[in-house]
Amino acid sequence: MAVFVGAVVQGSVGFGLGLVAAPVLTMLDPGVMPGAMQVANMTLPLLTLAAEWRRVDWRGLGFAVLGRLPGSVVGAVIVVQVSVHTLGVFVGVMVLVAVGLTASALAVPRNGATIAGAGFLSGVTGTATGIGGPPIALVYQHAKGPQIRATLAMFFFLSAGQSLVLLAVVDRLPSRALVTGAALLVPMALGFAVSGPLRRYLDGGKVRTAVLAVAATSAAALIAQSLAT
C-alpha cells in the first residue's frame, strides 16, 4: 500500500515514492532496506520517461549526477557503519527534514552549484535510506510539471542504478532485498497507472500536503520503534 500510494504521488508530482514507502518498508523489514527501495526507484522512472523523456533538462541533470557521485559514496559508508536500528532513526529523521523543507516551499535558486549540491545530498540520503528525491525536487519546484517529472525521473533512474552497484560492492544488497523489490513492482505499476487521471484533475499541492502528512507520521513511528528496540 505504501509503494502504491508513493507511486501515485510520484507519477503526479515527480517524486514521493521513497518519501512515503521507505519509512514503512524500514519499519516492517529493515533487512531489505535500502536495496528493495532502490529497485523500485530505478523502475518507476522508466514509466515516466516513456511519455515525457523529451522534457528532461539535460544540463541540470549533468550537474545533479556530478554531485551525486561523491554523495553516494558517503551514503554507502553510512550503510556499512551504522546498525539497523540507528539506520531506522536516520531514515526517520531524514524524512522529517525532507517533509519540513518540502512543505515550507523553500525558495532555492536553480543553477549549477545548487543542482550539484542537491545531487550530493540526494546521493547521501538516497543510497543510505532510499529517499533521494526531496533535495532535487526543491531545486526544481518552480519548473513546469513535465520538466520536473522528466528530469527527476532520469535522475532517479541513474541514481538508483548507481546506489544498487555501491550497495552490492559494500555487501549490503542481499538477494532477499532484490526479491522484495521485484515484488513491489506490481503495486508500483498500479500506482503509476492511477496517477495519470489524478495528474489532470487534482491539484498537486493538495496531493503533496496529504502525502507529506502520511510520510511524517510514518517517520515518527519508525523513529519511536527504532529507539524502543
CA-CA gap between termini: 25 Å
How many E-type strands?
Answer: 0
Strand content: under 5%
Give the overall shape: globular
Q: List low-pLDDT spans.
A: none
Topology pattern, helix = H, strand = E: HHHHHHHHHHH
Number of distinct helices: 11
**How much is the radius of gyration in Å?**
16 Å
Look at the structure and give the mean pLDDT.
Answer: 86
Main sheet makeup: none
Structural class comes to mainly alpha
Helix proportion: over 70%
Structure in words:
With 229 residues, the chain is an all-alpha fold. It is built from eleven helices and no strands. The chain has helices at residues 2-13, 17-28, 35-52, 58-81, 84-104, 112-129, 133-139, 145-169, 175-183, 185-201, 204-228. Helix 1 (2-13) runs antiparallel to helix 11 (204-228), helix 5 (84-104) packs antiparallel against helix 11 and helix 6 packs antiparallel against helix 7. The radius of gyration is 16 Å and the shape is globular.
Describe the protein's topology.
Layout: H1 2-13, H2 17-28, H3 35-52, H4 58-81, H5 84-104, H6 112-129, H7 133-139, H8 145-169, H9 175-183, H10 185-201, H11 204-228
List keywords for this structure.
229 residues, globular, mainly alpha
Q: How would you concisely characterize the structure shown here?
A:
The chain is an all-alpha fold and 229 residues long.
